[in-house]
Amino acid sequence: MTTATHHATDAGFTLAEEHAMATALGAAATGVRGANPLVGAALLDPDGRLIAVGRHHGAGTDHAEVDVLNRAAAAGASAEQIAAATMVVTLEPCNHTGRTPACTEAILAAGIRSVVHAIGDPHRAAAGGAHRLRTEGVEVRDGLLADQARDLNRRWLAAVGTRPFVTVKIAQSLDGAVAAADGTSQWITGAAAREDGHRMRMLADAVLVSTGTVLADDPALTARHPDGSLAARQPRRAVMGLRPVPADAAIRGADGRFHALTTRDPDEALAGLYAVGARHVLIDGSPRLSVAFARAGLIDELVVYQAPLLLGGRPAFPDLGLSTLGEALRFEPDEAGGGAATRFGPDTRLRFLPVDGDAPESATDAVHAASETADTSATRKKG
């Protein structure tokens, strides 16, 4: 356990709570973006000492509140010590059962009587956690480092309840090509990078490509292990465009998880996928589709696998329609999901978030600002 000064701040929170929230934000920022927001949590004892820190690790895993409770117990905290603690969490605890049980019930079962959260949960299905806890006599306070928490998940917050979160993944050469001039692209990146790309598919609810990609490459879009076997969790496979998908196309499969979206409108395509339950859509190796979503401002996360070769072939983002540097679509490094830059053998995975006009500071800067506040106060072919 670490110790922090325990006295009231002007905002009504203790310095220990501010330190804990900054720590929770830092933990949250190492999580995986997608269907769920990045969330971190911390437990403080009555003297302001940090008992444990947890975070959400991705779709289908324990939420941050449950993770921190488990970590506290694993670190040797007794049930009595946990019950006497204050839980500090970056997002209002959820109040519904989805892939995992409601966090409110885990908090109540642990006997915790004090909760501090940064921002409310805007997702209608999950909201109401604070009210649920208060009805059971739990003291709930909110608003601590709210701006930093909001900025960390700004793209998820913009999408939640209306459309899926969109990740665009590309594998390219140093000169930005996703295929050679003759169309060959198997393989631009090495085995380790491709394995990580399939891990991304396992986490997504749907993988989306254009009809052009289907007709040119006939991708299967399944999530596979390095030995070629299918992963236990498979995304839906979706194609958008006006041309028909051949009856024998690999993307159709035989499991009923194929969706044909007869539209060229990104908003309509996302609405169709949202209607069948997709909350995280991965656009994987479909350049013109990536361009359409970029033009529409619908890229929430950009993941680039950079291979150390020069190809001089087909660009990752053809025909963006930009004529001057001032029109550039700008992105910022994202430290979530393992870091802004991660090596996979000879290749480098780069993660980016779009720079929004109304978001002056980056998600990484927001976490750094939170800490300072507390201290001072895979590929296309046959995919």
Number of helices: 12
Q: Low-confidence stretches at least 5 residues in length (pLDDT < 50)?
A: 1-10, 373-382
Would you count the extended β strands for me? 16
Fraction of residues in helices? 25-40%
Biggest pleated sheet: 9 strands, mixed
Strand content: 15-25%
Distance between the termini: 47 Å
Order of helices and strands: HEEHHEHEHEHHEEHEHEEHEHEEEEEH
pLDDT average, as an integer? Answer: 87
Globally, the shape reads: elongated
Q: Which structural class fits the helix and strand makeup?
A: alpha/beta
C-alpha Rg, in Å?
22 Å
Task: Write up this protein.
Strands 6, 8, 9, 10, 11, 12, 14, 15 and 16 form a nine-stranded mixed sheet that branches. This protein starts with 14 loop residues before the first helix and ends in a 7-residue tail after the last helix. It contains twelve helices and 16 strands. Residues 1-10 and 373-382 have low confidence and may be disordered. It is α/β, with parallel strands linked by helices. The longest helix is centred in the first third of the chain and has 14 residues, at 15-28.
What would the keywords be for this entry?
disordered N terminus; nine-stranded mixed beta sheet; five-stranded mixed beta sheet; alpha/beta; 383 residues; disordered C terminus
